[in-house]
Amino acid sequence: MIVQRNMALTNLNTLGIAAKASYFAEVTSLDALATLLADTKLASLPRLVLGGGSNIVLQQDFAGLVVKIALRGVQCEALGESRLLRVAAGENWDALVKSCLQQGWYGLENLISIPGSVGAAPIQNIGAYGVELSDVLVAVSGWDLRENCLRRLSASDCELSYRSSIFKTHLLDQFIVTEVELKLSHSPSPNIRYQALADALPSGVDVTPELVAETVARLRASKLPDFRLEPNAGSFFKNPIIEASNAAELQAEHPQLVSWPMPDGRVKLAAAWLVDQCGWKGQRVDGVGVHPRQAIVLVNYEHCSGGNVLALAAAIQEAVSQRFGVALEIEPRIY
Ligand SMILES: Cc1cc2nc3c(=O)[nH]c(=O)nc-3n(C[C@H](O)[C@H](O)[C@H](O)COP(=O)(O)OP(=O)(O)OC[C@H]3O[C@@H](n4cnc5c(N)ncnc54)[C@H](O)[C@@H]3O)c2cc1C
Questions:
Q1: What is the DSSP secondary structure assignment for residue 237, as one 8-state letter?
Q2: N or C terminus of the chain: which is more exposed, having fewer CB within 10 Å?
Q3: Is residue 191 situated within a structural domain?
Q4: Is the interface score ipTM higher than 0.95?
Q5: Are residues 81 and 178 in the same domain?
Q6: 163 tagged catalytic
Q7: Ligand 1 pocket, Cβ-based, cut-off 6 angstroms
Q8: Is there a domain that residue 192 lies in?
């Protein structure tokens, strides 16, 4: 395996930040991963495990080893009406969703068009249009860096929650995902509980998983900028979750507040609405801006440094905190 020095990461992160990695290796097999991790010189360096680079912010050059996960392969096992898929971490998520639809394996259609790799999907429990990875996840396998061995975690071991998992908490930087197991269904059961999706479906037609996927893809294309043209990392802020009593006070003060009740009684607020109300939509500062159609997407128009991106994010957080008393948390991981 080739370990490259001073590797440019500009094309390996969707924010298009021009940073370099001191060391870079692309891993295409479990053996290669084990060999790389056993290298004593590299083992002492900070490590960044990279998928598609669609959920990271590089503040500066990465003075360590970037491990690009390029493991490939999909295996499918029939279990009655269900299908158990074992998908290697380096597979592209969106390509997987489309291929599953073509084969008549259902459950992923609402998660179409999310950039990135399969291995990163459990890290923040990707979600969109009323479905989260947790709805279909069976298990995650990978390299446990604490015990230096391969390990399989069941879905419940992964402690998935809204945009979070054990990989962002107790196992932060301690687990390299190599394979994800998903349980899909061979019989269609479209999930259209998300109101904006239900509203966008044509009336008077049968709702099929294919139609759901097509509609979600269309909605996303109309709302989210293409990172290849306008470099971005998707939602830059998580939707804040607050206590119901605080939400009621805010709602009384701001009747237009956009929010959703959570199963645990708390309330999730629309970060986009909060940012928009503070007048940030469409604003640009030092080559970085807030997208004119989507207030929680920051666009790195001029391939600026991560510092510029984070400075804009901090200004937005401050404005939202001042106006609503709500703390906005940054969604992508900052390196
Ligand atoms: C236009 C756009 C739209 C988006 N829409 C959504 C959306 O609707 N819903 C949503 O949830 N997200 C969305 N995202 C965010 C992003 O696509 C997802 O979080 C995706 O899962 C990140 O995958 P990645 O391979 O690019 O991860 P990367 O950016 O490469 O990595 C993200 C984090 O995961 C870690 N990681 C990656 N691979 C592994 C691995 N194999 N093992 C251990 N750790 C790993 C990295 O170290 C890093 O901390 C969007 C992003 C963009 C740019």
A1: B
A2: N
A3: no
A4: yes
A5: yes
A6: yes
A7: 14, 48-56, 69, 89, 114-117, 119-121, 123-124, 126-128, 176-177, 224, 227, 232-234, 333
A8: no
